[in-house]
Amino acid sequence: MQVTWFGALFHAVNFAAPAAWVALVLVLLARFSAGGRSINVLRQFAVLWAVGLGVALLGLWWFERDGKMATYAAMVLSMG
Q1: CB atoms within 10 A of CB 72
Q2: How far apart are CA 48 and CA 13, in angstroms?
Q3: If phi over 0 gives left and psi between -120 and 50 gives alpha, with beta otherwise, what is residue 3?
Q4: What pLDDT is attached to residue 33?
Q5: How far apart are CA 68 and CA 45, in angstroms?
Q6: 35 contacts: CB under 8 Å, gap ≥ 6
Q7: d(CA 23, CA 76)
Q8: Residue 44 contacts residue 27 (beta carbons within 8 Å)
Q9: SS3 for 68?
């Protein structure tokens, strides 16, 4: 089986997507519940996404496969 650059990019984007979506939802919720205080949305998104990617990589290393629900639960808990 030959791996192409498009296939590798597709897998990398799909690996990072859950962390990005959870980070986006959390940033939007924080923005609406800030009560008039200004928050740095980009910085908060970057930090949350990095935490989510770290947990996803840790889950990939621990379970030796991607997409386990335990990894997603740990991602949501750590990002929250």
Answers
A1: 17
A2: 17
A3: beta
A4: 84
A5: 23
A6: none
A7: 9
A8: yes
A9: coil
How many residues would you count in the chain? 80
- Range of lowest pLDDT (2-11, 28-37, 49-58): 28-37
- The tokens describing 42, both together, are 């980009």
CB 79 within 8 A of CB 26: yes
- Residue 53: burial class (beta carbons within 10 Å; 0-12, 13-18, 19+): middle
Contact 55, 71 (CB under 8 A): yes
- C-alpha span between 65 and 23 (Å, rounded): 22
Burial zone of 44 (CB within 10 Å; 0-12 exposed, 13-18 middle, 19+ buried): middle
